[in-house]
Amino acid sequence: MEIKYGAEVVDRSGKHLGTVDHLMRNTLTGEVSKFVVCREASLRDVFLSPQDILKVEKSKIRVNVSIDELGEITQGKSQKY
Q: How many CA within 13 A on the CB side of residue 26?
């Protein structure tokens, strides 16, 4: 599975979350260990891992988290991510 910079990220229902803004790689293997989803200006960016991905399409990544769960995460109510 290839995570590309600039790819659209959607939640498990298909709602837009943002775009891939940064990739963090394991220094030994070169594999992506985390990626940053850049969200709207009023929302915090989110760090996700490849294990959070349900499906990668041509320019879209579907993750196994909902937009509502991300709202709780960015407001400090959850420690899941």
A: 8
Which pLDDT belongs to residue 81? 46
Facing residues of 56 across strands?
A: 61
What's the CATH number of domain 8-74, 2.30.30.240, 3.30.70.260, 3.30.1340.30, 2.60.120.260?
A: 2.30.30.240
d(CA 11, CA 16): 7
Give pLDDT tens digits for 1-41. 689 999 999 999 999 999 999 999 999 999 999 999 998 87
Residue 11 tokens read as 């939640």
Coil/strand/helix, residue 74: helix
